[in-house]
Amino acid sequence: TTYFRTGFPDLYLLNTDTGANTVFADYKGTNTGGVFSPDGQRVAMILSPRGSPDLYVAPANGRNPRSLTRDRAVAANPSWSPDGRRIVFTSDALGGPQLFIIPAEGGQPRHLSTRLSGYVDEADWNPRDPNKIIFTASTRSGYQLGLIDLSTNRANWVTSGGDNSEPTWLNDGRHVIYVRRTGKWHGLRILDTETGKDTALHTS
């Protein structure tokens, strides 16, 4: 997502080999949250042509997007299941940011209760294990990362200390890259979700 051309959030496609940017979605309103399905054939994104940001799915070229949600709630941050059949996303339909899962072909969103916080966002579905979703949630002292196991519907905290957010699974389905903020310092860290080992990726 970038604001550089119009001053409004538009989606661009970046060619990492050449550095070329091309417009991917510049519909009226918000164009954010673009994420390709695991097979690369579809893209989920957040668009707001009707006013409220809704979840859409389109072919890989971004054309003719189809809305999966159509309500007054604000949708954000979609992430695909490993098999591409479901999408987890954030919605404030219940009054505050919470996670919901919806079939990628459309249907009724299902609330995914973590029982950890009233503010849950930035979910990322594990690319190897369809039962694991990592997310950011608020606590009394800031933000921490939580991990839910869909096979048991149990969630637990996987970080502590500082403000932690923006988790992204590595392709091994075991490690997570995330951002830690401590005072004025912002840094990237890597977390081994199996052993709990948490390592800074840089010091400067």
Brief account:
The protein is an all-beta fold. The chain has strands spanning 11-14, 21-25, 31-36, 42-47, 54-59, 66-67, 75-80, 86-91, 98-103, 110-112, 120-125, 132-139, 142-149, 154-157, 163-169, 175-182, 185-192, 198-200. The mean pLDDT is 96.
Distinctive features:
204 residues; mainly beta; 4-stranded antiparallel β-sheet
Describe what this molecule looks like in 3D.
This protein has no helices and 18 strands. The chain has about 200 residues and is mostly beta strands. The protein is globular, with a radius of gyration of 17 Å. The protein starts with 10 loop residues before the first strand and ends with a strand.
Layout of helices and strands, plus pairs?
Elements: E1 11-14, E2 21-25, E3 31-36, E4 42-47, E5 54-59, E6 66-67, E7 75-80, E8 86-91, E9 98-103, E10 110-112, E11 120-125, E12 132-139, E13 142-149, E14 154-157, E15 163-169, E16 175-182, E17 185-192, E18 198-200
Antiparallel strand pairs: 1-2, 3-4, 4-5, 5-6, 7-8, 8-9, 9-10, 11-12, 12-13, 13-14, 15-16, 16-17, 17-18
Uncertain residue ranges: none
Annotation field: number of helices: 0
| Quantity of strands, as a count | 18
Strand order of the largest sheet: 3-4-5-6
